[in-house]
Write a structure and sequence with these properties.
Helix content is 82%, strand content 0%. The chain contains five helices and no strands. The protein has one domain. α1 runs antiparallel to α2, α1 crosses α3 and α2 packs antiparallel against α3.
Length: 122
Amino acid sequence: MEVEKGLKIKLLVTGAVSGVINGFFGGGGGMALVPLLRGWIKLEDARAFATSVAVMLPMCAVSAAAYYLRVGIDLRAAWPFLIGGLVGGVISGLSFKKVPPKLLVRAFALLIIFGGLRSVMG
């Protein structure tokens, strides 16, 4: 499938923005990626969420490698989160089609607001 030049540039910029956020903050690139995919790239809601998940795996692997090389990672502390994340990912992946896209968008917005407030308030 041939991608037009303007769209290709948008895709590269969208990926770069998400990667910078993910790298600087140790995650959260998907928080920017989903709205960019929905608004700028014009993907439908469900496809934007699914694309974000697919993109985040390699992006997180690169960010984790950079953090590991620069400051180290406490792998013992990370294992429980990794296992829980895998279980949560499987459950949500299997039930994704059962959740209305409008509900996903609203829940996602609330999650962003909650995270922002927690960050600002300490």
